[in-house]
Amino acid sequence: MQQSLLEMAKDLVMALIQAGALAPEDMQKELQKTHGSLLELKSKEEFGEGNGAVSENGIMANGVSGVEHVDWKKSIKKYTIECLVCGASFKQLSVRHLRNHDLDPRSYRQRFGIPRTQPLSAKETTAMRKKIVQKSRPWEKAPTYVKARKQKASNGTAAKTSRAKKAPAAAGA
């Protein structure tokens, strides 16, 4: 299983402490520095040399857009979706969870470059919801739909009666 960058940084700093090259009280500062360096190396590896800079908190910044460079498509799997902020897996990313990161669905999508129409849920969850909606057809229960159907039906009967009245008049002439 692949080790996270934070775990790698922790292992490196612990090795420095065990080797006596680092005092335990300097651990936190060295951990942050090592994690930042690993993030920078990872970004250079993924996006090529010099195409992005990593800030101190580990957020990739593209000079103009401010969008984090991650492949959001890989986070949406068949049965789970992975939060790109904390790495936790869910069936769907709820507003409640995103609020923990001071985000809403719109800002989450903007931050990671996810299209507005992409559901923030697992593929299977999205498919199941789609089946339910197609089966229940909620748009047919909407007041505007019902009103339009009644109006169309009444216009259809009115047109039939007017055609029926015109037909005998044309025959008699």
From TrEMBL:
Superkingdom classification of source: Bacteria
Disordered, as annotated region: 123-173
GO process annotations (BP): regulation of DNA-templated transcription
UniProt GO molecular function: DNA binding; zinc ion binding
Family: Belongs to the ros/MucR family.
Protein name: MucR family transcriptional regulator
